[in-house]
Amino acid sequence: MEMSKVNADNRAVIEDLSISFPRPGDEDLLVVEAVSFTVGVGEFVAVVGPSGCGKSTILRVLSGLLSANGGTVLIDGQEVSQTPDHVGFMFQKDALLPWATIDENITIGAELGGVPLEDRPALVASLIDMLGLAGFEKAYPKNLSGGMRQRVSLGRLLAYQPTLMLMDEPFGALDYQTKIRMGRELLRIWEAERRSIIFVTHDIEEAIRLADRIVVFSARPARVAAEYIVNLSRPRNLSEMRGNAEFNRLTHAIWSDLSMPT
Amino acid sequence: MASVDKVTPMPPGRVRLGSIMPLSSVAARRLILFFALVAAWEFTAEFLVNEFWSSRPSEIVMRLFSMLVDGTLWRHTSITVLEAFAGLLLGAVVGTPLGIWLANAPKASETADPFIMGLYGLPRVALAPLFILWFGIGLLSKIMMSFTMVVFVFLLNSREGVRTVDPDLVDLMRSMRAKSLYRARKVLIPAIVPWILASFRLGIGLSLIGAVVGELVGSSRGLGWYIQNAGGMLDTTGVFTGLVVLMVIAMLANQMIALVEARVLRWR
Ligand SMILES: Nc1ncnc2c1ncn2[C@@H]1O[C@H](COP(=O)(O)OP(=O)(O)OP(=O)(O)O)[C@@H](O)[C@H]1O
Ligand SMILES: [Mg+2]
């Protein structure tokens, strides 16, 4: 094993992480095996991997919701034992409070993120506007489409003001155009505030369009199959990108990593 | 083509039916059912069964009126409502926290479960003589009777309510480092409110049973006593009048809960 990659520029360090779940009457289900990767301060890392390989599970460990069976997880150099400060987690499911309006659901993020009371309404209003949810402030989640709920959930995450954002397929329920627009907004916020992001997606093109670096996982148990640095200048224009040799190289490489039999 | 006819969504005649008939409103249909039942009863008493056995609506209305005038209606109704309501409230206040606690203490819950179910399954009306002995023939014994009738409903429902809270919501709160009090306020309590309201709905009838049974066994006031007394004097009209009043109380209380539900559970 090489020397630990811990350095001051790392927001998160995952080293030799392994996670398994007990199964009654059977041996434990090994979900994550010896996974190591880092996320720098202000870095945007995309994670791709086959369904069921353990991506969500790794995020749960990073957010302190689940404890690992082996390895270390450091956030700002601190071992994660309970939920770390200012790490925001956007679940794969929207997890909105059904009894709270859209306004209230987003406000919860601001409240728990320590936004002063008097600043909350303006922050929430601007987020609702940015997410294209104007007019639905007083609606309840049941009256929203899946994609709208996902955007509310994104609003709550942003209102929480996390410096490390764990995003589990955040745009999975959106149509192509909305996905592009939300991605652009996310990049804008990310660039302005130098946040760090771990972004799980099944969309290779989306990963290349957004990320600085892409970590590819193997099928379960998740191992790091490959890591790519995305050498494309920002802002990345989609139509220019498509003709770019680097873009095509990455797409094909990740594609073949994911198609590899295990 | 035959297949084209089949696609027609609804024959035009059927579409119009609902809008022409006053039957389309629930209130109208309920009123019709009510008058039909009353008329059938009145008819039966007139032509089929001697009214000594089952009285008749007109007699009951007259009795109600005279009771209203001489104050006996209020005298008996107020005390029964008070007993039932106090028992219901006490059941909610004791049963709900117990249920929440048991849901969070699986060991304790597991241990106590057979005993809870045993007590729940016990015909608690049989406790009435004991309660008269313990708590006297006054208000307290009846309140305790309705309390024992309803407390399990609140306990079991709130326990089930807590168990069915979406674990993702709790995880989400934890991922934002929400304190347990905040989590209770934002997740736990809103999640069990529907269960508590449902308990109130079920509890209305049960608490009235508790109060009335207590009165039947030993008291000098209340609708239970009035029914008992009327029965002893072969006054079937008195018995039915008491029953009608009890039914109206239950219906009004149920309507009140429905109003609260409509306001509080708008998110559903
Ligand atoms: N609480 C749990 N108990 C037991 N097994 C679990 C639990 N959570 C996840 N698993 C198992 O771990 C594996 C990985 O799950 P995970 O949700 O991390 O996958 P994923 O990579 O996020 O998949 P997807 O892309 O479909 O969201 C799955 O096989 C799942 O069955
Ligand atoms: Mg997942």
What is the CATH T-level topology of the domain at 10-86 and 162-259 in chain A?
A: Rossmann fold
For this structure, the CATH topology of chain B is MetI-like fold
Q: Class of the domain at 10-86 and 162-259 in chain A in CATH?
A: Alpha Beta
Largest sheet of chain A: 6 strands, mixed
What characterizes the major β-sheet of chain B? none
Largest interface comes to:
A-B, 24 and 19 residues
> What is the highest CATH level, the class of chain B?
Mainly Alpha
CATH superfamily of the domain at 10-86 and 162-259 in chain A: P-loop containing nucleotide triphosphate hydrolases
Question: Segments of chain A where pLDDT lies below 50 for 5+ residues?
Answer: 1-6
Question: What's the overall average pLDDT of chain A, rounded?
Answer: 91
Amino-to-carboxy terminus distance of chain B: 45 Å
Annotated CATH architecture of chain B: Orthogonal Bundle
Low-confidence stretches of chain B: 1-13
Estimate the strand proportion of chain B.
under 5%
CATH architecture of the domain at 10-86 and 162-259 in chain A: 3-Layer(aba) Sandwich
Share of helix among residues of chain A?
25-40%
List keywords for this structure.
heterodimer; A: 262 residues; alpha/beta; Rossmann fold; six-stranded mixed β-sheet; four-stranded antiparallel β-sheet; 34% helix; globular; B: 268 residues; mainly alpha; MetI-like fold; 13 helices; 0% strand; disordered N terminus; binds adenosine-5'-triphosphate; binds magnesium ion
